[in-house]
Design a protein that fits this description.
This protein is α/β, with parallel strands linked by helices. Helices cover 29% and strands 21% of the residues.
Length: 293
């Protein structure tokens, strides 16, 4: 299938969607809170407002991969042979309640996009997850529930990175993944040779442990990052974990760590007062300094 890259005007109208960790959304909505869930258009506008704070930001769409991916890019001149930072969003609004699947997984609060906006690096690209902000023939509820880390999803990101590599000729990529985006980034890092660093924030890095912990149905059809520990031993890794994170949690990360025979390149920091969503955005410029350039 041919890949098409569309660079859109930042303020051009288009389909809207948005993201917030699925389990957190379940807890909020199941608690009896009367707050209205913003519609897709409102969530889409929120993402554009965040991106608009970045000078030179452009809206970008990768089409036919097999999933369409929406994102934002800020690429300064002279990016050839430079490091490009790639940010991958979390799972989004996958569930409205523990028993009701969302019709639209676009995030309520796209934390990976906020981290991207707070990264001063001159060459950076944000990527949403399949069916966030965009719709297509392949979009169905399986894509953002049990199949959120399927082979088709991973291949979509492979093809995006290949497209970027052909067009911009970077030296390599640093992959940043938030929550479920951390799982995607980890699997990509295990399979590619052009990833210099893997960075996760509140990453879901052992999905089998995570589903057992929360008594959820297994993610049938999805890959588990923990199964790629041996391949990841050769990649520099920096993981940021929230000590108060109830959505994923430190124990998920440490289950992932146990799969490594060689942990030489594995670095992590537990932010004791952070949870799944707070307070990564404000702390991000400082936390970035912990990652070796």
């Amino acid at each position: 299938m041919q890949i098409h890259l569309e660079v859109l005007n930042l303020w051009r109208s288009g389909p809207g969607r948005f993201f917030f960790p699925a389990l957190m959304a379940c807890l909020v909505l199941a608690s009896g809170c009367a707050r209205r869930v913003p519609g897709p258009g409102e969530r889409w506008q929120t993402a554009r407002d965040i991106a608009a704070t970045v000078p030179g930001a452009e809206e970008i769409k990768f089409a036919g991969l097999p999933f369409d991916l929406l994102g934002f890019t800020r690429i300064a001149k002279g990016c050839r042979d430079q490091e490009i930072h790639i940010y991958i969003e979390g799972d989004g609004l996958a569930w409205l309640t523990p028993s009701i699947v969302s019709k639209d997984p676009t995030p309520l609060s796209p934390l990976a996009l906020r981290l991207w906006a707070n990264d001063p690096h001159p060459f950076k690209i944000y990527l949403a997850r399949p069916c966030q902000y965009v719709s297509g023939a392949g979009c169905n509820k399986t894509v953002w529930t049990a199949g959120r880390f399927s082979e088709d999803v991973i291949q979509t990101y492979h093809r995006v990175l290949d497209q970027i590599s052909r067009q911009l000729a970077p030296a390599s990529f640093t992959l940043f993944g938030y929550s479920g985006g951390g799982a995607v980034a980890a699997i990509l890092s295990a399979r590619r040779t052009d990833i210099s660093r893997l960075v996760t924030v509140a990453g879901n890095l052992d999905t089998a442990f995570w589903t057992r912990k929360h008594r959820l149905s297994p993610l049938a059809g999805s890959l588990n990052p923990a199964d790629f520990a041996k391949e990841l031993e050769h990649t520099d890794q920096y993981h940021f974990i929230g000590g108060l994170d109830k959505t994923v949690g430190p124990d998920v990360f440490f289950s992932f760590v146990q799969k490594f025979a060689d942990r030489t390149k594995l670095h992590y920091t537990v932010q004791e007062q952070f949870n799944h969503g707070c307070c990564w955005e404000d702390a991000w410029p400082v936390l970035l300094k912990q990652i070796k350039e």
